[in-house]
Amino acid sequence: MKEMLEALRAASRQAIDEAVDLDALEALRVKYLGKKGELTAILKQMGGLSAEERPVMGQLANQLRAEIEAAIDRQRTELGRVMLEKKLEAEALDVTLPGVEQPSGHKHPMYNVLDQIKDIFIGMGFEIVDGPEVELADYNFTKLNIDEGHPSRDWTDTFYFTKDGRILLRTQTSPMQVHAMETKPLPIRMIAPGRVYRKDEVDATHSPMFHQIEGMVIDKGVTMADLKATLNLVVEKIYGKGTVTRFRPHHFPFTEPSCELDIQCHKCGGKGCPTCKGEGWIEVLGAGMVHPKVLSGCGIDPDVYSGWAFGMGLERLAMGEYKITDLRLIFENDVRFLEQF
Ligand code: PHE
User: Fold this and answer.
1) What global pTM score does this model have?
2) Which residues line ligand 1 (CB under 6 A)?
3) Domain segments of the chain as ranges
4) Which residue's alpha carbon is nearest to atom 10 within ligand 1?
5) Residue to probe by mutation, ligand 1, list 140, 144, 174, 312, most atoms within 8 Å of CB
6) Distance 171 CA to ligand 1 centre (A)
7) 134-136 and 127-128: which strand pairing?
8) What is the pLDDT of residues 112-171, one digit of tens each?
9) Does residue 307 contact residue 217 with C-beta atoms inside 8 Å?
10) Which CATH number does 109-338 carry?
11) Which phi and psi angles does 283 have, rounded to 5°?
């Protein structure tokens, strides 16, 4: 019996030391120490031993069990160490290699200009409002005092969705004046930037989609002097202090009186140059006093309240600020262009 235990000791030690993974080790544990294992089989023969031999063999067998358990634990630790080593080796990073640069984008130059304008108006207590690009002809035209038959309602100028001409892509941000007057408590100070659409062929200065910023103030006792003072201030903030402006009479159906605001060309100081196309002046926006008919159509009493409004093109402003000569560059999203800002 002693020989059998010695043989098991030698065989198990070698097998355990050579186990290549945890599964193999577990199989050996079952093989030697399990219920049907080799050590159990030897112990079952203890019945044939004498009373003196039995405790001695029992002690030897217990000792062997402890030895085998310890050997298995040792090998398990060793296998874990080897596996970890292999894993670390496989995942090793060479921290001395140069990194891969992740290019990061930035805001589009036109939106930088828009942010600047928003800041100016927020600083004067205006709120920024947003509205639908798919609009009712009622809001884009009728409520703005633009009658049926007005040339801007023409099918050749406007993208209509329905044959009856009821639904369209807004051709201007001015319908936001009506939305604001219909929904907001008085007084109102708002700007509404957004996309507008016209059936224009694409060239260096035209696109069927472009951006406008609408602005409007409605309060008691608002006059044309407020319009001029506010817009002069805005122009100075955008183009610099001392920028000379000119308010030229104009016509819009929804303002009365109406005007266009020009700035004196900052390039030539008014003498005439390619930037101002020889005019000495650059047109910046259309504006005027909100027409009494528009006010009353929105439920505001024109005898109590008055207001002014303006609309300006955002692309033109950005082109002036960044000296961009072709409108198409703003929409093409060519990284070689955008990277320059
Ligand atoms: N909506 C006009 C345009 O697109 C501009 C404008 C806005 C004029 C507000 C007066 C008042 O030309």
Assistant:
1) 0.71
2) 172, 174, 252, 255, 286-288, 309-311
3) 2-90, 109-338
4) 287
5) 174
6) 10
7) unpaired
8) 999 999 999 999 999 999 999 999 999 999 999 999 888 889 888 999 999 999 999 999
9) yes
10) 3.30.930.10
11) -75, 130
